[in-house]
Structure prediction request, 113 residues.
Amino acid sequence: MFNIFSKPSSGVDISVNEFKEMVEKERGVIIDVRTKGEYDQGHLVQTDDLIDFMTPDFRDKVGKLDKDKTYYLYCRSGNRSGQAARIMKGMGFDQVYNIGGFEELRDAGFEAE
Prediction:
């Protein structure tokens, strides 16, 4: 059944519950695409990398990542991470997912620091 409150299924955007299930099966690489200032104010403990989506060298930085790995991206609200995930898809990354916003993830039980 269609739920107007669910994210559109694009193969990129996944719900917090889908992320919980997927990360248990394959840990992958969790990337915060917010600014350093936002990251310093709080981030998921599981975060592996910080790659600021708003910097001019974003594409260069993600271009150096292993395209065979699974990537989970988050930001403040899910907007920047969604854009970043779509850019990465366009660059040839098959397993890249927008897992939404930091507060939503923290509220769902993911540990933050």
Observations:
- The first strand starts at residue 29 and ends at 32.
- Residues 16-107 form a domain with the Oxidized Rhodanese; domain 1 fold (CATH 3.40.250.10).
- The chain has one domain: 16-107.
